[in-house]
Amino acid sequence: MTVSRLALFLTLWASSVDAFAPAAFVAPQTLESSSSSALYAIGVLARKAKEADIRKYCEAGVEDNVMVEYKKITAAKDEPLDMDKDAGPLQVVLTRRKGTITVIAEYKRKVENGGFIDEMFDPEVLSPTFREYGACAIAVMADERMGGCTYKDLAAFAEEQRRARNDIPGPVMIVNNDLIVDEVQIAQTAVSGAKAVVLILGVIGEEKLTDFMKAAQALDMESVVSITSKEEAQKAVDLGARIIMVSVAGLEDKTACLEGLEIPEGRQVTTIASIMARNDKGLDEIEEAWGCRDKGFNSVWVSDALYKLGMDTSEHPGAIIKSMSAKSSLKWASPKARGGKGEGAREYLGDIMM
Question: For labelling alongside 109, which of 116, 170, 175, 234 has CA 20 to 30 A away?
Fold first, then answer.
């Protein structure tokens, strides 16, 4: 995570309010750690603010359909995490043959500079675009502070994909990228129609990670575990994670997080590289996606980079998705403009997409 991204987290998550959860729920607990790093400190602020939001939500009254899913979680609380089960539907679609890369497209209404995206289309418009241009899954940053989205956006994507069940290409799965700090959010995710949740190991800690993976399992959902170091990657695998997202900047640092990763015999672990947007008009993010493919990553997670060039016919999010999943070689191709000025890829994107 870059310094600017850390500062953004600090700004957006610094404030929280006190509230009380209803008796039916256990209030989120404080997680212990001896870390004094800036990342951990900001993670604590983010977690506490989100915990306060969840308390307010519970205090206002949890919807009946969410309560039904929450009770399923509590009923399965003593069940062990199944580490030997077959790959789930999301893991299957993310993992293709060697030498290819799949793309997870993330929807958000805010970019990392804290502002709302100009001319952002609604889920009903972008959902089919993501699907038709080859995204294998759609993530929604269902957090109003960070992404400007809510669980209504999550449900809108899930509903549009459901309606496409007889189309070609068919529907893709929806992933909730809210900051998960309590099982009730996993229950909300199930009600929305999403099929997976993102769990950030560095924010919730090992004990909660296990609890939340079990909660997702109880509702037939999959977990994507976000890590930022080699140590976290190994810990996630040891705890039973089947899908790992490496959330650091730079291809070399991403690759280093997975070096020497010990995976139990017979278990498949799918790896996702989070592609962070550059603060320019170029398309180096596409090259990074190709580099991640060549380093053995199964998938890339793309967020702000999808929107930085606008929504016209040659540079819209679908064009970026299709270019990232293209079988182009870093040796023979570049997504940079042919003029050599590095100001975009209006002509070359069209060539890559063919």
Answer: 170
